[in-house]
Design goal:
12 strands, alpha+beta, 3 helices, about 220 residues, two-stranded antiparallel ribbon, globular
């Protein structure tokens, strides 16, 4: 099995992503949060892309628009503190890597997670980049970061990313920073309380498109 970030390090799914706190894990999904019905996408080929060389231009502002069947939200990529991580994410978005994938992992009060072409938490981009996150980084509501396995060094990332929905989920500063939600936090929150089976949404949450624009 491929690890969540897309490296060759074989790990069970439970180790491939940040673990929820007991309080967050015990928080149930809410009934009645409406999203447009969508078919579960077929798994896409696991990533075999060449590792990107470009980083974000620190003088520019980059916004990732994430369109889902539950609505759209925007992430401002942190070009100053995470240019390599953001450059990789933009590269994947430009390649259409995220299109027609899912948020396969939803934990109310903790995170929503997507970016896996296989849709089960084990797929990735086929490469990884390493960029240590800021030592004082707190994973607070709206922060977007990259998933990694427990054995990988801090700041390792591939394609899987998560959006924090708890006020402060208490993770150590080991997960590569991507950016922060600047628009559509209500959409993220709606996704976070959908009914789940274990951590998988009962009804698919489909990422229809991710498009990154530079300003």
């Amino acid at each position: 099995m491929f690890a969540a970030c897309g490296s060759d390090d074989s790990k069970p799914e439970s180790e491939a992503t940040p673990g929820a706190t007991e309080e967050a894990a015990a928080s149930p999904g809410a009934e009645g949060a409406a999203c447009e019905k969508a078919e579960l996408p077929k798994p896409k080929p696991d990533g075999k892309l060449a590792k990107p060389k470009d980083s974000l231009d620190k003088a520019k502002t980059y916004v990732a628009k994430v369109l889902t069947n539950c609505g759209e939200f925007e992430i401002e990529l942190d070009a100053k503190r995470a240019p390599k991580t953001g450059g990789s994410f933009k590269y994947l978005a430009d390649e259409g890597f995220f299109d027609n994938t899912t948020f396969h992992r939803v934990i109310s009060g903790f995170v929503i997670q997507g970016g896996d072409p296989l849709g089960n938490g084990t797929g990735g981009a086929g490469y990884s980049v390493v960029e240590a996150p800021p030592s004082d980084l707190s994973y607070t509501r709206g922060v977007v970061a990259m998933a990694k396995t427990g054995s990988e060094e801090p700041g390792t990332s591939g394609s899987q990313f998560f959006v924090v929905v708890g006020e402060d989920v208490g993770l150590p500063p080991e997960y590569a920073l991507l950016g922060k939600v600047t628009k559509g936090q209500d959409i993220v929150d709606k996704i976070s309380v959908l009914p789940v089976n274990a951590e998988n949404p009962v009804d698919p949450v489909v990422i229809r498109q991710v498009k990154v624009e530079a300003k």
